[in-house]
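Illustration 12: NADH-ubiquinone oxidoreductase B12 subunit.
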Amino acid sequence: MAPKPNLTGFDPQKLAASSGMPANDPWKRYEAWRYTGPFSTRNRFRRAFPGLGIATVAFAGYLVFEAVFLKEEHHGHDKKDDHH
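Figure caption equivalent — predicted structure in C-alpha cell form:
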C-alpha cells in the first residue's frame, strides 16, 4: 500500500530539520555569561551553602573531642543508690 499523498505540501521532517538552532544565534552572546565564571553550575552549588564545610569539620571535631575526653565514668551504681 502506497503512502497517502500530502494534500497541503507540509512535510514535518523538513520542518524538524529546519527548526534547529540557527548558525548565527544573535542571543548566544547575551546568554553565555549565565553559565560561565561565578555563575557556572559548580560555583552556584558551592556557594549555595556558604558555611557548610567549616560547620561540618567543626561538628566532627566536637564529636571526636566528646568521645575521647568527655566520657562519663560509671562505677556500677546509680546516684540514687549513694545513701549508705
